[in-house]
From TrEMBL:
Record protein name field: IFT121/TULP4 N-terminal domain-containing protein
Principal place of residence: other
InterPro entries per record: Beta-prop_IFT121_TULP_N, Ift122/121, WD40/YVTN_repeat-like_dom_sf, WD40_repeat_dom_sf, WD40_rpt
Chain coiled-coil ranges: none
Species: Pristionchus mayeri
Cellular compartment(s): Cell projection, Cilium; Cytoplasm
Domain IFT121/TULP4 N-terminal: 23-214
Keywords: Cell projection, Cilium, Cytoplasm, Repeat, WD repeat
Gene Ontology biological process: intraciliary retrograde transport; non-motile cilium assembly; protein localization to cilium
C-alpha cells in the first residue's frame, strides 16, 4: 500500500489532541463495481457511505448498482479494530462479503446514507426514487420506496439519533421525514441546491449547500 503523510499539516485544525504523534493515510483496498455489460458505459462510483457500527461500506454507481461491502474491521464486540503498527492496519481491509442490492432498475444511484442507530440504509437515484433498505434474517429488503416525481435528490442525511432524515432536492425543496416514513415538514427554499445537507450535533439545525456556492 502507498503511505501518505500529512507534511503540510492540513489536518491540524481538525485534531485537538497533543497525544497524537502523526496521521497516516494509506490505500488499503481497491474495489470495483460490477464490470460493464456490452454496449454500456463503464460504471462509475457516485456515492459512498460507511456504516461505522457494522463495518459495511455502501457504494452506488452510475448504472444503478448498489453494493454492500462487509469488511473484517470489526472485532467480536463489534468495535472497529485499531492497531498501533501501521503495517498491521493495512492488512485489515479485506471484504468478507460483497452484496448487490437490486431496486434502482438501472437508474444512476446518486446518494446513500446510513441510519446508524436503526442500522438501515437509504439510497436515491436520478429518477427521484428513494429506497429505505432494512436487514432481517441475513437478507436486505426494501422496507420503503418513495418518489416525489418532480426532482432528483442531491443530498440525504439522518439525524445523529436516527429519528429524522433530511432530504435535499435539486429544485430547492427540503423535506424532513421520520424513520417510520411519515413527513415531518417540508419547505421550498427558492434556490437550486447542489451540495447535499448535514445535521448539527444537537439535531436542531440543518446545513445545505446552494448551487451558487453559499
Amino acid at each position: 500500500s502507498e503511505m501518505i503523510t500529512d507534511e503540510a499539516n492540513t489536518l491540524t485544525p481538525f485534531v485537538d489532541d497533543s497525544s497524537i504523534k502523526g496521521i497516516y493515510i494509506y490505500r488499503s483496498r481497491k474495489i470495483n463495481l460490477p464490470p460493464p455489460v456490452d454496449d454500456a458505459q463503464e460504471d462509475v462510483v457516485n456515492c459512498l457511505a460507511w456504516n461505522q457500527n457494522a463495518g459495511i461500506l455502501a457504494a452506488g454507481g452510475t448504472r444503478g448498482h448498489m453494493r454492500l461491502l462487509q469488511t473484517n474491521m470489526m472485532n467480536a464486540e463489534r468495535e472497529i479494530l485499531m492497531e498501533k503498527d501501521v503495517q498491521a492496519i493495512t492488512q485489515i481491509g479485506v471484504f468478507t462479503s460483497n452484496l448487490s442490492l437490486e431496486g434502482h432498475n438501472g437508474h444512476e444511484v446518486q446518494c446513500c446514507a446510513w441510519n446508524e442507530p436503526a442500522q438501515k440504509l437509504t439510497t436515491s437515484d436520478k429518477s427521484g426514487a428513494i429506497i429505505v433498505w432494512n436487514y432481517d434474517k441475513e437478507n436486505w429488503y426494501e422496507e420503503m420506496v418513495n418518489n416525489r416525481n418532480q426532482s432528483h435528490v442531491i443530498g440525504m442525511a439522518w439525524s445523529h439519533d436516527g429519528v429524522r432524515i433530511c432530504i435535499a432536492y435539486a429544485d430547492g425543496t427540503l423535506i424532513c421525514g421520520s424513520n417510520d416514513g411519515s413527513r415531518v415538514w417540508s419547505k421550498d427554499l427558492g434556490y437550486e441546491l447542489a451540495g447535499g445537507c448535514a445535521w448539527s450535533p444537537s439535531n436542531n439545525m440543518i446545513l445545505v449547500g446552494l448551487s451558487d456556492g453559499e
